[in-house]
Amino acid sequence: MATTLLVLLLIAIVVVFSVKNIRMQLITRPVFSFFKKVLPPLSVTEKEAMEAGDVWWEGELFKGKPNWQLLHSYGKPTLTSEEQDFIDNQVMTALTMIDDYDIVNNRKDLPPELWQYFKKEGFFALIIPKKYGGKAFSAYANSTIVSKIASRSVSAAVTVMVPNSLGPGELLTHYGTSEQKDYWLPQLADGSAIPCFALTGPDAGSDAGAIPDTGIVCRQEFNGEEVLGLKLNWDKRYITLAPVADVLGLAFQMSDPDGLLGDTKHIGITCALIPTDHEGVEIGSRHNPLNMAFMNGTTRGKDVFIPLDWIIGGPQYAGRGWRMLVECLSAGRGISLPALSTASGHMATKTTTAYSAVRQQFGLDIGQFEGVQEALARVIANTYQLEAARRLTTTGIDLKVKPSVVTAIAKYHMTELGRKVIDDAMDIQSGKGIQLGPKNYLGHGYMALPISITVEGANILTRSLMIFGQGATRCHPYVLAEMEAAGMQDTSEGLERFDDLLLGHIGYATRNAFSALGNALTGSRFAQSPVSGETKQYYKDMTRLSAGLALMTDVSMLILGGDLKRKEMLSARMGDVLSQLYLGSATLKLFEDNGRQFDDLPAVRHVMATRLHLAAKALDEAIRNFPNRGVALLLRALIFPLGNRFKDASDKLSIDLANAMNKQGPARDRLTFLCPSFDGDTSGITEVENAFIAKHGCKGLYKKLKQAQKEGSLPKKLPAVALFGAALEISLISEQEHQNLIKADELRLAAIAVDEFDKL
């Protein structure tokens, strides 16, 4: 009897899903009505943000079964010979011209010769096409250049990155008219026109779509004749380069109350380009962003008239400004700000591994203390992660996709990782880090890091509103299409389209539920991996968590509907899962791109343990805080039936990583190349590096001295120079070895010294 009932039930299910009329009446129509009811309302700016940009690797992570071969197929980012030559020559020359202590504390500006060098050598033209005199460098090259400059001066790096980020240069390149490009781009390329872009105001920060600044269509005299144009009123703040800008990009709400252009009264956000010497434009006032010296300030205008031809892209682009801005945000979010954070990591890893080897306490290098090793391992691992994310994100941009979700992930998590790196470096270097002066390489970076946290959208809102809020809908293989079907004016046509999508969506959700449960019960044993060896399991575990995220996303959108937008803590946690999976993907790809180097494994192990732990933790917390407790119990049974067993990086992983990087070698070079050493460096970085190299060169001698002290042939407590002399006297070391030890100790003392002043 039971078997008969089961067979009848299966037949009924098959009939319901196979016969379209029955399926439409019993399943599709009720679900369609429910979907329309719970459909989250989208504002115009939200809809434009959803439609702008492209879905890239994040889409695979949302599917529950990432195509890892696709990730590997993206290729390794490389520099052209022209880009490498520019970095080896112009960038290195610029580094020798930077004295960040003088820039920040004395000048409050870059020196005139550095401004001129940046202009003359095309540092402001990295993204401008060659036909207009620009460099047309790749996103990876752009990022590398900004990072290397940032290793010596945040103020100089910001000055270079802004013209190559969201602003007139990029907007003109993508949307400008031929006349606008021919006039402005050559001036931007040779530095004769310094640009800025004014978006943020007192009442519009992260919610840039709410800008109150206005442009009203009207007729007015311009250059001796009456023309159709815009009367602009704006009040902007936090605008980098505004105090010295020659041309101002401006975002405003455009309206046509008198119908001079047609029937549309409210045209929408529009972008225009205005010379700063134009009548009514106010610039010059400066902010003081955490004492950094880059130019940042306000711009205002009252009843400023401009012709319609000054709209970027011409009058036909009126009202399309928000779409333009969203599509171009990848430069700031995916290149510039992550470059600053990655530079912090390279600099912190280089100096902190060196400092922990030359600074001694209790007769030992501080790098031998486990407490220091724990923090040092985080510095190294987070730097490996930053470099990995920098490369994967710029790879996407160089593939000519506009991955808006990926760049939001990069902006938020990389700036936060940069902050953690500097915090740990400051803890280890201690007094060396807090005494400001020419030899302090950490202080200004520590002070400046919160600036990146606030730019291109405050990090809190990027995490809680953007990453999952945009990603869940934009990257889901069915939801956006289902929303479009539900929103169709022809209900019958919409229902037909929805029916086609629903079958696929049900199969997709069922597969993810079984995948999440199966992988959880088997430890991902049967999940696929594109590689063998030690990193194989990481791919399998990432697939398991991807399936869990996909299942959680479907259930959340089904149960909560439009309320999910207001459950910011819940959506932030699910966004964290996606972000950690993206960062883990970047780490695994960097390991492959580096040729699966054995000496990279300590860093990869630490990073991947952390990424998997944080992804599982976020997923676990999302389930624990899910509003519907019955559904939460079901989710836990499917995703974590045996509990959450993903553990953070162990003490052993931290000790192994710290020990692996306390010496010279290719692995350390790969994590510090954005922070080069060079003769004449006044920042203190080359100084501590030289001490590290010298001490490493004498490691055999130090070991010999220690052994002699242990055996009693040398006193145990002697100052370094006296100990070296005593060793020479008993012929334990040669005269040359004695000189090497003396030189190494002189370099050590110079490296651990801090600046002192007669008066401040």
UniProtKB/TrEMBL annotation:
<dbReference type="InterPro" id="IPR046373">
    <property type="entry name" value="Acyl-CoA_Oxase/DH_mid-dom_sf"/>
</dbReference>
<keyword id="KW-0443">Lipid metabolism</keyword>
<dbReference type="Pfam" id="PF00441">
    <property type="entry name" value="Acyl-CoA_dh_1"/>
</dbReference>
<dbReference type="Pfam" id="PF09317">
    <property type="entry name" value="ACDH_C"/>
</dbReference>
<feature type="domain" description="Acyl-CoA dehydrogenase/oxidase C-terminal">
    <location>
        <begin position="319"/>
        <end position="459"/>
    </location>
</feature>
<keyword id="KW-0274">FAD</keyword>
<feature type="domain" description="Acyl-CoA oxidase/dehydrogenase middle">
    <location>
        <begin position="196"/>
        <end position="295"/>
    </location>
</feature>
<dbReference type="Pfam" id="PF02771">
    <property type="entry name" value="Acyl-CoA_dh_N"/>
</dbReference>
<dbReference type="GO" id="GO:0033539">
    <property type="term" value="P:fatty acid beta-oxidation using acyl-CoA dehydrogenase"/>
</dbReference>
<dbReference type="GO" id="GO:0004466">
    <property type="term" value="F:long-chain fatty acyl-CoA dehydrogenase activity"/>
</dbReference>
<dbReference type="GO" id="GO:0050660">
    <property type="term" value="F:flavin adenine dinucleotide binding"/>
</dbReference>
<dbReference type="InterPro" id="IPR050741">
    <property type="entry name" value="Acyl-CoA_dehydrogenase"/>
</dbReference>
<dbReference type="InterPro" id="IPR036250">
    <property type="entry name" value="AcylCo_DH-like_C"/>
</dbReference>
<keyword id="KW-0285">Flavoprotein</keyword>
<dbReference type="Pfam" id="PF02770">
    <property type="entry name" value="Acyl-CoA_dh_M"/>
</dbReference>
<feature type="domain" description="Acyl-CoA dehydrogenase C-terminal bacterial-type">
    <location>
        <begin position="473"/>
        <end position="757"/>
    </location>
</feature>
<dbReference type="GO" id="GO:0070991">
    <property type="term" value="F:medium-chain fatty acyl-CoA dehydrogenase activity"/>
</dbReference>
<dbReference type="InterPro" id="IPR006091">
    <property type="entry name" value="Acyl-CoA_Oxase/DH_mid-dom"/>
</dbReference>
<dbReference type="InterPro" id="IPR015396">
    <property type="entry name" value="FadE_C"/>
</dbReference>
<comment type="similarity">
    <text>Belongs to the acyl-CoA dehydrogenase family.</text>
</comment>
<feature type="domain" description="Acyl-CoA dehydrogenase/oxidase N-terminal">
    <location>
        <begin position="98"/>
        <end position="191"/>
    </location>
</feature>
<comment type="pathway">
    <text>Lipid metabolism; fatty acid beta-oxidation.</text>
</comment>
<dbReference type="InterPro" id="IPR009100">
    <property type="entry name" value="AcylCoA_DH/oxidase_NM_dom_sf"/>
</dbReference>
<keyword id="KW-0276">Fatty acid metabolism</keyword>
<dbReference type="GO" id="GO:0005737">
    <property type="term" value="C:cytoplasm"/>
</dbReference>
<dbReference type="InterPro" id="IPR037069">
    <property type="entry name" value="AcylCoA_DH/ox_N_sf"/>
</dbReference>
<dbReference type="InterPro" id="IPR009075">
    <property type="entry name" value="AcylCo_DH/oxidase_C"/>
</dbReference>
<dbReference type="InterPro" id="IPR013786">
    <property type="entry name" value="AcylCoA_DH/ox_N"/>
</dbReference>
<keyword id="KW-0560">Oxidoreductase</keyword>
<protein>
    <recommendedName>
        <fullName>Acyl-coenzyme A dehydrogenase</fullName>
        <ecNumber>1.3.8.7</ecNumber>
        <ecNumber>1.3.8.8</ecNumber>
    </recommendedName>
</protein>
